[in-house]
Structure formats: structure tokens, C-alpha cells
From TrEMBL:
Coiled coil: 9-36
A biological-process GO annotation: translation
Originating gene: rpsU
GO MF entries: structural constituent of ribosome
Organism: Paraflavitalea soli
One cellular-component annotation, GO: ribonucleoprotein complex
Keyword check for Ribosomal protein: yes
Matching Pfam families: Ribosomal_S21
InterPro entries: Ribosomal_bS21, Ribosomal_bS21_sf
Family, as annotated: Belongs to the bacterial ribosomal protein bS21 family.
Keywords linked to the UniProt accession: Coiled coil, Ribonucleoprotein, Ribosomal protein
Name of the protein in its database record: Small ribosomal subunit protein bS21
Entry superkingdom: Bacteria
Amino acid sequence: MLIIDSKDCENIDKALKKYKKKFEKAKILLQLRERQSYTKPSVKHRTKVLKAVYKQKIASGQIEG
């Protein structure tokens, strides 16, 4: 649960902006999307390895990002 401390004189727009930033930093939406379907640990590991290989290729200059 996200709690935003707002002062009495603070504008509602500023409080909403604070809430949106806090929501994004907490990565709640990512967690919800991740929990919608089950992914096997082997699939998670494979995607992690493929991302690392891709980043390595970009760093070495084989692929232009």
C-alpha cells in the first residue's frame, strides 16, 4: 500500500505526481503483470541469458542499438 504524505497547503496535482512517482518506483504494475501467468524457471533463465548475450553483442559493437 502506498502512502503519500501531503501538507494541507499542497496542491492536489503535486500529491498526484508524488503518488505516480512512488507507484512507478515500487514496480507494482510490473509485479501484477508478472503474476498473471506462470513462467517456468527454465524459461526465466533462458530469457535472462539471451538478454545478457544481446547486451554483450551491443557492447562489443556487433549489433548497433
